[in-house]
User: Fold these one by one.
Assistant:
Number 1:
Amino acid sequence: MKSIDNDGTGAVPSGIDLQPRSVVGVEVPREAAAGAPVQLTELSGRTVGDVKAQDAYVVAEDVNVRYGSNHAIRDITLEIGRNEVVALIGPSGCGKSTFLRCLNRMNDSIESAIVTGRITLGGQDIYSRELDPVALRARVGMVFQKPNPFPKSIYDNVAYGPRIHGLAADRSELDHIVHTSLDRAGLLKEVRDRFDDPGTSLSGGQQQRLCIARTIAVNPEVILMDEPCSALDPIATARIEDLIDELSKNYAIVIVTHSMQQAARVSQRVAYFHLGMLIEVDETNRVFTNPQHKLTEDYITGRIG
Amino acid sequence: MNVRSKSMTREIVEAGLAKRRRKDRVFRTLGLLSTAVGLVFLITFFATLASQGASAFKQTHIILNIELSRELLAPDGPFDIDYADFDAVVRQALRRELGDVNGRRDRREMNRLLSIGAAYQVKDTIAKNPDLLGSTLKMLLPVSADVDMLLKGNIDRDLEQSQRPLSDRQIEWVDRLIEKDRLVSRFNSALFSNGDSREPELSGIRGALMGSVYMLLITILIAFPVGVATAIYLEEFAPRNFWADLVEVNINNLAAVPSIVFGLLGLAVFINWIGVPRSSSLVGGLVLALITLPVIIIASRAAIKAVPPSIREAATGLGASRMQVVAHHVLPLALPGMLTGAIIGMSRALGESAPLLMIGMVAFIVDVPAGFTDPATALPVQIYLWADSPERAFAERTAAAIIVLLGFLLLMNLAAVIMRRRVERQW
Ligand SMILES: Nc1ncnc2c1ncn2[C@@H]1O[C@H](COP(=O)(O)OP(=O)(O)OP(=O)(O)O)[C@@H](O)[C@H]1O
Ligand SMILES: [Mg+2]
């Protein structure tokens, strides 16, 4: 396990360019979040810790996103392992969602967003011309912060993905997919005899699990979750955390969360973002017990954000 | 300190409460008042219309024993329906009924009691059943509009003879017919089965009604699909740039362009350039489609904008293509709003008359149009034409036509509302 300290004395992981950009120091203070004033030296543009994953499946290199003149994330390099849960944490507006949305090209629909850098999925460049974003999104599923079931029946919600991608040969196969997806999302028992009810008639927690069922019905390789529990009570949250544990056996999961406890509970690795930069990445235990970077420490001890 | 400031907040709020409540009350009263004013206007409008137009749905008829004698109908041997003098038959029957019609002047005055439609009706009866020739038939025939007006109380008997359409002698005859129970009031079926006519008692709104139906069919068939497609393209697919803004501004301006300008455009482009038949419901429908289009586009765009982005994101995140997002999610959710736009647009199109004047639809057209290319007129134009006619009998028909127009409008809106309910319930 290599770690990189502030002064850059540690070895830089090979093949990853972590040179600081000149713009970094200039723009930072103006955008600085509440809390301790940020020292320029603290934001050298280098990621502390280890961006490498053991069995890397999603690899992001030097990803930059600009919304017009707003440089939202800078030079993010991060790997996500095959059966790994990576938690993205950081103060509001630091670019966690933006980074997440790069991974399934959801930023494509935002006209002002310009994404540069390289992201590969199983070695394949997802921003290459050959790859249709439609095909990509079938492989990289997403669960949103606010539960957003379609205004259709529960069944149709889960069946939608398989239907548009033609994953089921006939009705019985579709039934099977819907059943297993709801079961794995831990919702089957509650909705068994109300498949035809509108998805919006469920409670918030149930809706979120429905959205997860909808996502796994397509059987993706990676699941992106943007604060999936922010609208849920502790019980529903616990169920979804169990679910994430369960799902991580088969999927690579990237989860954005504002809850340190949640990050500690569900993730194997944690990535700390700050003002569009990836400050520190490491194993969850290490980050929470022994953060290497001053900003990470400030954040997890509650001094920022 | 904390406690004191808390109680102070309470005092301040309570002090202002009365004022707030008063404002609420004033506002509510004002709202109620304006609603009442609107309602009074509406009721007055409908009451006037009903009182003026109701009588037009009834028409006076005369019961006559028509002798279909060969001497009158076929004086020179063989009977030819096209040359037979059916007027003579009807007049003879009336003369027998009245008894004291002597001399040419009397006869001429008596003839004016009958509608020219009476002879046509006898002719139609014979045409359907030629075997009736030679027999005597008891028939219900229309009287002239003047007699009808007299019976409906629209002619002042106390006026000087020369100042009213019926002479003293004519009125005396009519009174005699009334006494003998020969004049009866029946449902005015001509109003719904005939086209326009110079004779009020024979004129109907069927021609105008069919013209309006044909036009609106064309309008909705063109304006709705084109409008919705345009809105979808502009909202979902068009790049946001200078040109998109330009198009948007232009569409908004088009919605505000006076409709007569569209009539000029129709005249120049559809009739003179493309060669669509003048006065036809086809050209009318095309012009009305142009007028309706901006309304539908604007309403549809608003409806599409109102679809929550979270639904779009959910579908996109699952891997739906842009077209699938639109077809499966945006369109079903936006359809009720689009239909509302269509209702507004169609209602406007139905009431439009100015642009139709420009494309020759103000002509006097007797025949009921049988197709999209036949010369036609529209309900509002018919109303205008009748309102312009001097005969007293056309006044009530004008009101009746307005009632029919409003009924049509109501029916159309009802259909749209039902349709909207349907699509709204789908999810
Ligand atoms: N659609 C957009 N258009 C323009 N700027 C955007 C857009 N989305 C995000 N941004 C900007 O990008 C930056 C990062 O936003 P992002 O949503 O990624 O933050 P975040 O870390 O997810 O915050 P939060 O924890 O509050 O969700 C912010 O400065 C934000 O204003
Ligand atoms: Mg976010």
Note: Chain A has eleven helices and eleven strands.
Number 2:
Amino acid sequence: MEYLAGPLSALIGELEKLPTIGPKTAARLAFYILSAPAEEAQALCRAILDVKDKVRFCSRCFSLTEDDPCAICRDPRRDGSKLCVVAEAKDVYAIERTASFRGRYHVLGGLISPMEGVGVDKLHIAELVQRVPAEGIQEVIVATNPNAEGESTALYVARILAPLAVTVTRLAYGLPIGGELDYADEVTLSRALEGRRPLS
Amino acid sequence: MRVTSLDLANFRNYAALHFEPPGGVCVLLGANAQGKSNLLEALSLLATGKSFRAAREADLVAEGTPLARIAARVHRAGGDVTAGCFITRVGEGARKRFVRNGRTVAYAHFLGTLAAVTFLPSDLHVVGGPPALRRRFLNAALAQCDRTYYRHHAAYTKVILQKNALLKSAAPDEKLLATYNAQLADSGSQIIGARAAYVRKLAAAAREVHARWVGPQPELGVRYLPNPTLPDGDESPGTVFAQLEKALAASASAEMLRRSALVGPHRDDMALELGGVALERYGSQGQQRTALLALKAAEYQLLAQAAGEPPLLLLDDVLSELDAQRRHAFMLSIEDCEQVFVTATDAPETLPRTATTVYEIRAGTVRRAPAAAAS
Ligand SMILES: Nc1ncnc2c1ncn2[C@@H]1O[C@H](COP(=O)(O)OP(=O)(O)O)[C@@H](O)[C@H]1O
Ligand SMILES: [Mg+2]
Ligand SMILES: [Zn+2]
């Protein structure tokens, strides 16, 4: 890209490294940034640096936060008897967006997968076992993905918490809203049947 | 049922193919490495969801292209349906997406859109070859007859891979091993139950076909050999589950020692016997071939029952391996078939069927053969 000014091709090169960004998109973004007001470019720079400087893991729930412990862990209005276990910090945001869970979280940092070298000791499972009695948690809701690793991890968590006086539940499997019964596969449908609830 | 049109785009050596195969016997004639097997592979993939030979699914996508497409229109007793599969390269591997009547559907829902029995040269080793070949035979047949089977089998296979990786790690976590074993007992007992029921029906049908060909003696015996073995013929789900759970617990220390999963249906086998003795040990090559043909004819009958109409038959280079008499007997046993695809390198002998159409396959193209070649 010798025909481009050095800094411009450097910016394109950096943007191209980002996931889902190809060379064309990278060039479009770079030209946009070049033509944008200086304040906009500075705000973008600052936001990027701040993420690296200021965001860290919460020492209690291992979610992402600026202050430790995180806002959810500190919030006294949260129901401390319920703990939702998720694989990744992004899952916390997915559940928070529903605004229907008022308990707290515990982020495992992944799913158990010996094939990929992710053993039990690579995840925040020991910390979970400590938190449950220490915080007087009564219900642990395991909200891992309904795939093979998510299933194994959920069952493992249930097994390891079994000696403690705590109820362990799993998110219900269900039919997608707006979907059609006739298009659901047998396994989804039979799991949804198992998880049925009374209407009256 | 029959396929009325097949479209391939960047599938193996087919850059772009539009093919409207007729009913009856469709002979695909061509020199080696022209794309005869590739065409059968595409049809078979729509039926079973898997390639019958690719170790790496990325190999299905034409070299230098990112995406392959298979699309077929299938004429069925209940009306026409369309079935499609997109295979996309992802890193070193590939991802498949299945489409039925224009809608992307989960694989478990796609299964059954097209039904096919495939007969490959490697099937000749189902008798006498390693147990893995007999398990592959059962898996391909069962996945098409019973949609939930595929799901249980896929779930089981994933957990076995994780369990083996765990057993090979420095200090396997015992609770995780127990978790995997609980999951394996669940899906594994479903697999064993389904295989037991299927092999019972398969055995009855194969015995009958075989007796029709060679007389009642010696009788062809097909027996399922589950791992673990079940107490005499009790295949009720509860018993199978309990038996598998017990066997997993009993072999825990041996598995730790050998660092490998030793118990479960991934170690299943199927016994093939003639007059009560093992076919691969005592049968002549001719007897083994006859038994195998009876097994394939039985597979065909069971799939026809499950699908509610005769499935396609895909014969890749096997007919030429058989003598005329066996070939004739086999074709008669599947006479209700609406559509058969046969590959051959030489001009084929006429098959005992009415409509036979010959196509020439050359470097990923399909052309109707001139009348001389078809005679
Ligand atoms: N992914 C691929 N891309 C391009 N060509 C391929 C691919 N996979 C296989 N082929 C070609 O397909 C041909 C083999 O086709 P095949 O159907 O097995 O032959 P046959 O007619 O002998 O049955 C070979 O020429 C091989 O190079
Ligand atoms: Mg071939
Ligand atoms: Zn926190």
Note: The CA atoms of residues 3 and 9 of chain A lie 9 Å apart.
